[in-house]
What does this fold into?
Amino acid sequence: MNLAEKSVENAEYMIEQIKERLNVINFDAIKPSHFDEEMYEELKDIYDHVMKRNTFSPNEMQAIVEELGNLRKEK
It folds into this structure.
């Protein structure tokens, strides 16, 4: 999988991996459809950060989820 390529499938993969790594229960509010291609690089940056770490404090998890929420496209 080439995550440098902007695609819906890659966004879905990254979001699922972030959800698994953070083990966040109520993460269903953030879905790949909430992101557009303009946000892809920011999503990839968050994904890269999360994948580098093994553990997160509750504050770090909250900050990551909030940042993902900030990236959501406007309706």
Q: What stands out?
A: The chain is about 55% helix and 0% strand. The radius of gyration is 12 Å. Residues 34 and 72 are 5 Å apart (CA to CA).
